Amino acid sequence: MKKRKTVMLWVSVLALALVACGEVITPEPVTRTAVPSPTPTAVPSLATATPPLRPTPATATPTITPTPIVHVIQAGDTLGSIAATYGVSVQALRDANGIENPLLLQIGQELVIPTGNEGPAPPAGLLPTPTPLPFGVQGVGFYETPAGSLWCLGEVVNTTPYTLTNVEVRVTLFDAAGTPLVAGDSAAAADILLPAAQAPLNRAPFAVLFLSPPPDFASHNVALLRGEFAGSLAEGIIPLTVEEVSSAPSGPEFEITGAVRNPDPEQMAASVVVIVTTYDGDGRVTGFRQQTVDVGDGLLSGDAVSFRMLLTAHGTAPADLSVIAFGRVPAEE
């Protein structure tokens, strides 16, 4: 049996300016100073330190049981854009409003925006599970939402000579004295990260949502909790070529279209996943989306399939975007 290939392909569309249209409320990007990690988490050539946030009013306090926020659906709204605006998941939005079919939303319909709390930060001195090899983190940005929640977005970078999987990060917020206040965990969007030598195919975005961030946090730290050798799992991945990528504003979101082609001369891709990541002018991640593309019975060698996705980016219009596409070989029976 022939060994399957283990490569993913990343296509960057550089310096792509997007112009937003319509009256859309978008969260303003905010940044804080990073606390040095107990393990190596920085790529030397990529700056990760960010200036501090504007001071939070002294009267602001965490809300234990927040009053639900109501959103009135406007023309062009989607569940995805509403969820991103308020910093909640689409599923939480559906559950809170009993939405079975998102296509039946009506202009003027009121949606209750759910809110909640994260767990407390780990006790001081408790370190996360160490990663087997060093990683890097870049493009970290913080984005407040109208609901008072806070998104932390960034990218994990594989700085090792190995193909890795099951990559997870922990973002911890600290007060001015360096005491941890709250923490949240997240997995990298891509199943597998290629070795450092194959940059930029060695990175993938992540997102951590703090539903009730402490108002007095002064800094943050991103630590890598987990990263495993992919081993034979990597043999199920097929590299896909991304072609004809274009983007344009679409109401409160951005529409990204293109095509992915299977260049493998022998293997069919039983499923296809595309990940789009957007960046601001300073290289901070402003949004990303992972989408499974319908390939019917599979994407044969040399064949291509088109994709289209809508993505909500935080802050101003993205200055750049990148696309990752990969397929999986059929499972053995």
Largest sheet, strands/sense/barrel: 5 strands, antiparallel
| The CATH topology of the largest domain | Immunoglobulin-like
Shape: globular
Number of strands: 19
Question: Which segments are poorly predicted (pLDDT under 50) over 5 or more consecutive residues?
Answer: 1-67, 122-132
Radius of gyration: 20 Å
Total of domains = 3
On the 0-100 scale, what is the average pLDDT? Answer: 74
Number of helices: 2
Percent of residues in helices comes to: under 10%
What proportion of the residues form beta strands (DSSP E)? 35-45%
Q: What top-tier CATH class of the largest domain fits best?
A: Mainly Beta
In short:
The chain is mainly beta.
Notes on the protein architecture:
This protein is globular. It folds into three domains: 9-22 and 236-328, Immunoglobulin-like, CATH 2.60.40; 29-52 and 118-232, Immunoglobulin-like, CATH 2.60.40; 69-113, LysM domain (Membrane-bound Lytic Murein Transglycosylase D, Chain A), CATH 3.10.350. Strands 1, 13, 16, 17 and 19 form a five-stranded antiparallel beta sheet that branches. The model is unreliable at 1-67 and 122-132 (pLDDT under 50). It has 333 residues and is mostly beta strands. It has helices at residues 79-86, 90-97, and strands at residues 9-13, 29-30, 33-34, 69-72, 110-113, 135-144, 150-158, 164-174, 180-187, 192-193, 203-210, 219-229, 237-239, 241-250, 253-261, 271-279, 285-293, 304-311, 320-328.
